[in-house]
Design a protein that fits this description.
299 residues, mainly alpha, 2 domains, 7 strands, globular, transmembrane
């Protein structure tokens, strides 16, 4: 994002310099160079453009320096997850949270745990709308985004919370008395309500789920303060994977998920689902037997 802005600036400046050069050539051909004031104006214009271009290049260099320094920064977020990596790396061969695995503090085990946690939550919960499922997966995966791991971005941006709220507007939720947080409505819950009847805004939704809301979005100011070693507030997280913001200029060590480990993981998931199905069948049988026994006693 930052590089694209700089590239556009340099391209614009180069075009203007080329235009100035063409004006000089045209002036000489037309014999206008006999009027020194035109030369002065053109030279001043060129000087201004050269200064702007130099400033642009200088800014690009400090941006690169800051981005490169981020690659060496340690992971220090330990509120909801214990990272398997101390520094950023690229995890390839992962399909759950794959966008965030490209610049992450998470290990393969961390991502497998997040995936299992989400699948288990889905099995307990009533059916969600497609858009609510998608935003929840993105939200769960946020802990494995490199910027969250390094605390570069802390808390969700208000507009991301608004997206979450809009996506889950009509879905059912329940307030958990134990955790004092909002959660998905489970199939065995007696009473649940649509989200719009529980909270009134995206900020309330994020806070009720246990996420912090942060409004700081000034990337330019953050980069400048970081370069000058000045204290600065962390940016907010808006759902954009960190590799799309910083990753184009830094090469991170890559960890490939082996085929064996993926097969093992799939086998473990199948065994887990089989165990859950067997447990449900046993419960159903016990309920039926108990029901028939009660009827027999009444007779």
């Amino acid at each position: 994002m930052r590089n694209q802005i700089r590239t556009n600036l340099f391209s614009q400046n180069q075009v203007e310099i080329d235009q100035s050069k063409n004006l000089i050539k045209f002036s000489r051909i037309a014999g206008i160079e006999t009027f020194p004031i035109n030369k002065v104006n053109i030279n001043q214009n060129m000087l201004i453009q050269i200064i702007l271009l130099s400033v642009g290049y200088a800014q690009l260099e400090y941006v690169k320096e800051v981005i490169n320094s981020l690659a060496d920064q340690e992971c220090n977020f330990k509120k909801r997850i214990v990272y398997g990596q101390q520094k950023l790396h690229r995890l390839s061969g992962i399909y759950f949270c794959d966008s965030y695995a490209k610049r992450t503090c998470c290990s393969q085990q961390n991502l497998e745990e997040l995936k299992f946690k989400w699948y288990r939550e889905q099995q307990q919960a009533v059916e969600l709308t497609q858009q609510c499922q998608e935003i929840f997966i993105k939200t769960i995966c946020s802990d494995c985004d490199g910027d969250i791991g390094q605390q570069i971005r802390v808390g969700f941006c208000p507009h991301y919370c608004a997206q979450m709220y809009q996506a889950c507007w009509n879905d059912l939720f329940q307030f958990d008395e134990k955790t004092q947080k909002l959660r998905l409505c489970y199939q065995n819950d007696v009473f649940c309500s649509e989200l719009r009847n529980i909270v009134n805004s995206g900020d309330q939704f994020c806070t009720s789920l246990g996420y912090k809301v942060n409004s700081y979005t000034d990337v330019d100011e953050w980069l400048e303060n970081k370069y000058l070693n000045l204290s600065t507030n962390p940016l907010c997280w808006d759902g954009t994977p960190s590799h799309r913001i910083w990753g184009a200029d830094t090469k991170l060590p890559e960890t490939k998920v082996s085929t064996k480990s993926k097969k093992k993981s799939t086998k473990e998931e199948q065994q887990s689902y089989l165990g859950l199905i067997i447990f449900i069948v046993i419960i159903v049988i016990l309920i039926v037997v108990s029901y028939r026994a009660n009827i027999f006693q009444k007779k």
